[in-house]
Design a protein that fits this description.
Distance between the termini: 60 Å
CATH topology of the largest domain: Rossmann fold
Number of strands: 9
Radius of gyration: 21 Å
Strand content: 15-25%
Shape: elongated
Number of domains: 2
CATH class of the largest domain: Alpha Beta
Number of helices: 10
CATH architecture of the largest domain: 3-Layer(aba) Sandwich
Order of helices and strands: EHEHEHEEHEHHEEEHHHH
Amino acid sequence: MTHPDKHQARKRFGQNFLHDPSIIQRIVDIINPQKEDRLIEIGPGKGALTKLFLERVNKLDVIEIDRDLVNTLTSTLGNDERLIIHQADALKIDLSQFGQKDLRIVGNLPYNISTPLLFHLLAYKDCIKDMIFMLQKEVVNRICAKPGNKQYGRLTIMLQYYCEVEPLFIIKPGAFNPSPKVDSAIVRLRPLNSPKDDLLNHECLKIIVREAFSQRRKTIRNGLKKYISEADFKELNIAPETRAENLEIADFVRLANHYHYLKINTL
């Protein structure tokens, strides 16, 4: 077995282990797990948060890709029958296997997979109550950005359309071992029961948003010319010379709905 203090952080898994007791306690208090919560921790690492979660819940699932860390967790916490350890890639995990709604997903997400993982989890939004993650601060800034901000982009729109997003607090590099070169931040995401703008087709929104931001300096006239005509922009009352970063989420929904309408009428 690997002693928890001997494990070498692996770059390929983006490992930075949280060790500051005051930060650990603050995160647990913000999550505020209740006994009956179905809590799933992604990337438990050496179990800094895991130990405190186990003091509060009846059952805890953790998802860890690193076999050595799975061995460490098994040797240090494995006797606790409330803990279920899944050695798995969180990017491939099927959350429907947990068989209920109101899942609470938490964790210190590896920097190198945070964006694709957030998109993956979005596919299970209907069974998630909330998600509270530690991420690179720059990623949290992108998630919470407003139109007109350089950080406003694809991640912003897809997450803010489906979730209420709330930045909570910043964590300095010294709270981790090894220390990352950037600040981290905690963000809370709560999937909305019903988004305020009606969307006809999720895939159409993905395509429109992806293409609009594929070259940020382009106007949306040029970025979306394969999908939306000059006449369509006028019909939608959206200025074609605008850049994607200056459009509201509601504008992207209207563009996506129009694209969907055009698709079904040309079949």
